[in-house]
TrEMBL record, chain B:
<feature type="transmembrane region" description="Helical">
    <location>
        <begin position="38"/>
        <end position="56"/>
    </location>
</feature>
<dbReference type="Pfam" id="PF00528">
    <property type="entry name" value="BPD_transp_1"/>
</dbReference>
<feature type="transmembrane region" description="Helical">
    <location>
        <begin position="175"/>
        <end position="198"/>
    </location>
</feature>
<feature type="transmembrane region" description="Helical">
    <location>
        <begin position="283"/>
        <end position="307"/>
    </location>
</feature>
<keyword id="KW-0762">Sugar transport</keyword>
<feature type="transmembrane region" description="Helical">
    <location>
        <begin position="229"/>
        <end position="249"/>
    </location>
</feature>
<keyword id="KW-1003">Cell membrane</keyword>
<keyword id="KW-0812">Transmembrane</keyword>
<keyword id="KW-0813">Transport</keyword>
<feature type="transmembrane region" description="Helical">
    <location>
        <begin position="98"/>
        <end position="119"/>
    </location>
</feature>
<dbReference type="GO" id="GO:0055085">
    <property type="term" value="P:transmembrane transport"/>
</dbReference>
<dbReference type="GO" id="GO:0005886">
    <property type="term" value="C:plasma membrane"/>
</dbReference>
<dbReference type="InterPro" id="IPR051393">
    <property type="entry name" value="ABC_transporter_permease"/>
</dbReference>
<feature type="domain" description="ABC transmembrane type-1">
    <location>
        <begin position="94"/>
        <end position="304"/>
    </location>
</feature>
<keyword id="KW-1133">Transmembrane helix</keyword>
<dbReference type="InterPro" id="IPR000515">
    <property type="entry name" value="MetI-like"/>
</dbReference>
<feature type="transmembrane region" description="Helical">
    <location>
        <begin position="131"/>
        <end position="152"/>
    </location>
</feature>
Length: 449, 316
C-alpha cells in the first residue's frame, strides 16, 4: 500500500513544495488566467465600495453588462467603504497597480490629487457610449470637473431624507390631500408638527430619529440647514473663510432643540424605532429598501425647509479612473464603456434609494412609478454640498474635524455659539493647511470648474 | 633533567590542552549557533521584517511630510514633533488612554485575584468556574465589543433593562469610557485570572499547614502567606495590563461605531494616530506620533522594571 520507499522527510518536502507551487498558481490565477479562461479580449478591473443592498444591485448590473458584452471581462472587487477604501485606492494608484475603473464619493475627488492619482475621463469616448454633459444636472456635472477636465462621472446622488410614517401622521392630521406630509416652511411649524405627531404616536418611542450621537449624520444635517440659511464656507478663490457663526449658531440651536424639547432619545437606534412606530426619522436614502422591506406605510421628503429655502445635504457616487502610467487602449475603452453602461442603466440602482444622476432615467415611466423615490427626486435641484476643497467629502478630514464638534452642541455639552466659533477656527486652520497628497493648499488646489 | 624536561613538557602541554579545549568549545559554540541559528532564523527574519524594519522606517518617516501614496516626501526635520507637542487633540487622546489605563489596571488586578481565589478554593464544579472566567478571553475583540454594544444600548439594552436604569451608556461622555472599561474587564480578566490561579496552585501546602498549627486564622494566612507569595505575579499582571491598556483601540472603536465617542471622549492615542495616517493621509505626522507613543510606553515599562528592582533590593 502506497510507496514503501517514500520516507517521512521526502513526503514532507513534497507536500511543502506542492503547497508553495499551489500558492504561486493561485496568485497567477488572480492576475490574468481568469481573463484568458473567459475567452474575452479585454479585461476591466473595477474596484467599488458597495456592500449590502447597493452591492447586490451593482452585481446585478454588472452581470447584465457581461451578458451584453461578452468581449469584455469585468473583474470586480468590493472593498470596505470609507477610509480603508480610499487608502487602498491611493496606494494602488501611487504604486502603479491601480484598477482600470473605480468608484469614489464626489466630495473626495478634489483631495484625491487629480492628475496624479486620478486620470481624466475621455468625454468623447463617453459620448460614444451614450453619456453627455447635457444628460446631467449642471451643478452635479461641474463637481466632477477640475482644471477644466472631467475626473468624476456621477452615478447618483444620495441625500438625507425626512422619512415619515403615514399611519401616525394620518392620526395626527399631518397628511395633505395627496397623502403626503404637509409642507413645513419654518422652525416653528416644524416643532408644531413634531408636537402633534408626538401626541399621536406610540408611547416609549422617540418622535424623531436624529442620529444625535453620530458625527457623520450631524455634520450632514448641519451642512443642509446651513445651506438653507444661505451660509457660505469660503470665497471663490479659497483664500478667505466666509463661514458665518451667527447662521451656524441658528442651525446648531435648531438641532439641539430636538433634544431639549424631548423629541429625541439620544443614542436610540433610529431605523429600528421608525419601524417600531416612531413617526419620523432622518436617514439616508439608502434606508428605502429596509423600510420598504418592512412593509411600512411611509413617505420620504427632502429635509424640511425650516429656514425658508429648500436644501438637502447631498453626496454622489461617481466613477473615476485611478491613475495608470500607461492608461489607454482597449482596457481603457472598456472602462469607459462599462461606466457609461451602469450610468445609463441606473433604474436598477434607483431601486436602492439613490437618485440616478443620469437625468433621462428620471423621466422614464418606470422611475416615476417608484415610491417613495418619486417624492424626493426634487432633492436633485437643491443639493447642499460641502465646499469644493481638498479636505472635504464623505468621511474626509472636514467631517472628521467638524462632525464631533456639531455632536457636542446637539448633545448639549457645549454651547451652540461657542461651537460655531470653534467651527470657524477649524475651517481657518484647514484652509491654510496643505493637502498631504500634493503639498498644495485649497487656494493652490486647482478646484476651479 | 627528566623531571625538568617533564615539567617543561608539562608546562607546555597545559596551555596547549587549554587551547585545544578552548578551540573545541568555540567549535561547539559555533556548531551550537549554527544549529540553533537555523531554528531561530525564521523568527528572526520575520522579526526584522515586521518589527525592526517598520520601526526604523517609522523613525525615518517621522522626519518627513510623507503622505499615504509614499512618494514626494521631503525632509522636515523636527516639525512633526513640534506640531504634535502643541496638538491639543493629541494630548486629549493621550489623556483618554491614560484614564482608561488608570481605571482598568487596579480593577483587573483585584478582580483577577478574587476570581482566582474563588476558583482555587471552591470544591464543586471547579472546572465550570475556571471555564466561565477564562472563556471570554478567547473571543475576538470585535465580537466581545459588539456584544457589549448591544448590552449597553439605551432603550433596548439588557443592562438598563435588568437594573431598571435609563443610563445613556454609549452616548454620554460621562459613561462611555466606563462602558468600555466594563467590557474590557469582562473580556480580558481571564488572562490575569489564569496567571493568578497557576501561582496559587504553586504555593506549597505545608506553609498553610504550619501557619495553622501556629494558630494563624484565614486572614493572617492570606496576608502573610498568599499575598507575599503572589507578589511577583501581581507585578507581572500589573505590568502587562498597563502596557495592554495604554494601547486601547479595538474595543473602543467598535463600541463607538468607529467614531471618537460622545464628544470625542473615548478617542485613544492609537485611534488618533490611525486617523491622522489614514483619514488625513499624514503618514509623516502619524509616524511621529507613533514614535512619541513608543517612547512613552518604553518609559513606563522601564520605570516599572526599575521600581521593582529597587523594591526587591530594598526588601533583601
Amino acid at each position: 500500500m502506497g510507496r514503501p520507499d517514500l520516507s517521512r522527510r521526502q513526503l514532507l518536502a513534497a507536500a511543502g513544495g506542492l503547497s508553495v507551487a499551489a500558492s504561486f498558481g493561485f496568485a497567477a490565477l488572480g492576475t490574468g488566467a481568469d481573463a484568458l479562461a473567459s475567452g474575452a479580449d479585454t479585461r476591466v478591473r473595477y474596484w467599488n465600495l458597495f456592500s449590502g443592498g447597493d452591492g447586490a444591485n451593482m452585481i446585478t448590473m454588472l452581470d447584465a453588462f457581461r451578458k451584453a458584452h461578452p468581449d469584455i471581462d469585468v473583474k470586480d472587487s468590493t472593498l470596505q467603504w470609507g477610509n480603508p477604501f480610499y487608502t487602498k485606492l491611493a496606494m494602488a494608484a501611487a504604486g502603479n497597480r491601480a484598477p482600470d475603473l473605480g468608484v469614489m464619493h464626489m466630495g473626495r475627488v478634489t483631495g484625491f490629487s487629480p492628475g496624479r492619482l486620478l486620470d481624466p475621463w475621455d468625454v468623447d469616448l463617453l459620448a460614444k457610449y451614450g453619456v453627455r454633459e447635457q444628460d446631467y444636472n449642471p451643478a452635479l456635472w461641474k463637481r466632477g470637473v477640475i482644471d477644466g477636465k472631467l475626473y468624476a462621472l456621477p452615478l447618483d446622488i444620495h441625500v438625507q431624507l425626512c422619512f415619515y410614517r403615514k399611519d401616525v401622521l394620518g392620526k395626527a392630521g399631518l397628511l395633505g390631500d395627496d397623502g403626503r406630509m404637509i409642507p413645513v416652511t419654518s422652525t416653528d411649524e416644524w416643532f408644531d408638527v413634531l408636537k402633534k405627531a408626538k401626541a399621536a404616536q406610540k408611547k416609549g418611542l422617540q418622535t424623531i430619529g436624529l442620529w444625535t450621537n453620530d458625527q457623520n449624520f450631524q455634520w450632514w444635517f448641519f451642512v443642509a440647514f446651513y445651506t438653507q440659511l444661505g451660509g457660505k464656507w469660503f470665497n471663490d478663490a479659497n483664500t478667505e473663510v466666509l463661514f458665518d457663526p451667527d447662521k451656524a449658531t441658528q442651525v446648531l440651536e435648531f438641532l439641539r432643540r430636538h433634544v431639549t424639547d424631548g423629541y429625541v432619545i439620544p443614542g436610540a437606534p433610529t431605523g429600528e424605532q421608525f419601524i417600531n412606530g416612531a413617526p419620523f426619522t432622518w436617514e439616508g436614502n439608502w434606508s428605502v429598501p429596509v423600510f420598504s422591506g418592512a412593509k411600512l406605510d411611509y413617505g420620504a421628503t427632502p429635509l424640511p425647509p425650516v429656514f425658508g429655502r429648500p436644501a438637502t445635504h447631498a453626496e454622489s457616487h461617481a466613477f473615476v479612473l485611478p491613475h495608470q502610467a500607461g492608461r489607454g487602449g482597449a482596457t481603457n475603452e472598456g472602462a469607459h464603456e462599462l461606466a457609461a453602461y451602469v450610468v445609463t442603466h441606473a433604474l436598477q440602482w434607483a431601486a436602492g434609494g439613490h437618485i440616478p444622476a443620469y437625468t433621462p432615467t428620471l423621466s422614464t415611466a418606470a422611475y416615476k412609478k417608484l415610491t417613495p423615490q418619486n417624492e424626493y427626486v426634487s432633492a436633485m435641484d437643491h443639493q447642499a454640498t460641502e465646499p469644493k476643497v481638498w479636505f472635504a467629502g464623505s468621511t474626509g478630514v472636514l467631517a472628521q474635524d467638524l462632525g464631533p464638534v456639531v455632536v457636542s452642541s446637539t448633545m448639549g455639552s457645549a454651547k451652540p455659539d461657542k461651537v460655531a466659533q470653534t467651527m470657524k477656527s477649524h475651517l481657518t486652520k484647514l484652509l491654510a493647511s496643505k493637502n498631504p497628497m500634493d503639498g498644495r493648499t485649497a487656494a493652490q488646489g486647482g478646484a476651479v470648474a | 633533567m627528566t623531571t625538568s624536561a617533564h615539567m617543561t613538557t608539562g608546562a607546555v602541554a597545559a596551555p596547549a590542552r587549554a587551547r585545544t579545549a578552548a578551540a573545541t568549545a568555540t567549535v561547539r559554540r559555533k556548531q551550537g549557533f549554527q544549529h540553533g541559528g537555523w531554528f531561530v532564523a525564521p523568527f528572526l527574519a520575520l522579526f526584522v521584517l515586521f518589527v525592526i524594519w517598520p520601526l526604523l522606517r517609522g523613525v525615518y518617516l517621522s522626519f518627513t511630510d510623507a503622505n499615504i501614496s509614499g512618494d514626494g516626501a521631503s525632509f522636515v526635520g523636527l516639525d512633526n514633533y513640534r506640531e504634535a507637542l502643541g496638538d491639543s487633540a493629541m494630548w486629549d487622546a493621550l489623556g483618554h488612554s491614560a484614564y482608561f489605563t488608570l481605571l482598568v489596571v487596579p480593577c483587573i488586578t483585584v478582580l483577577a485575584f478574587l476570581l482566582a481565589m474563588l476558583a482555587h478554593h471552591i470544591e464543586r464544579g471547579k472546572w465550570l468556574w475556571r471555564l466561565c472566567f477564562f472563556v471570554p478571553f478567547l473571543l475576538p475583540s470585535t465580537v466581545a465589543a459588539n456584544m457589549f454594544q448591544w448590552l449597553f444600548t439605551q432603550g433596548i439594552g439588557l443592562v438598563n433593562e435588568t437594573f431598571g436604569l435609563d443610563t445613556p451608556w454609549l452616548t454620554d461622555k460621562s459613561y462611555a469610557m466606563l462602558a468600555i472599561v466594563i467590557e474590557t474587564l469582562w473580556w480580558t480578566v481571564g488572562f490575569s485570572f489564569l496567571l493568578y490561579l497557576a501561582a496559587l496552585q504553586g504555593i506549597p501546602d505545608h506553609l498553610y499547614e504550619a501557619a495553622k498549627l501556629d494558630g494563624a486564622n484565614a486572614w493572617h494566612r492570606m496576608v502573610h502567606i498568599t499575598l507575599p507569595m503572589l507578589r511577583h505575579i501581581t507585578g507581572l499582571v500589573i505590568a502587562l495590563q498597563i502596557l495592554a491598556s495604554l494601547q486601547l483601540f479595538d474595543q473602543a472603536v467598535v463600541m463607538m461605531d468607529f467614531g471618537p465617542g460622545p464628544e470625542v471622549s473615548t478617542r485613544s492615542f492609537v485611534q488618533y494616530t490611525l486617523e491622522q495616517g489614514f483619514t488625513s493621509y499624514r503618514v509623516g505626522y502619524a509616524s511621529a506620533m507613533s514614535i512619541i507613543f513608543f517612547v512613552i510606553i518604553a518609559v513606563v515599562a522601564l520605570a516599572r522594571m526599575w521600581l521593582l528592582r529597587t523594591r526587591e533590593e530594598g526588601g533583601r
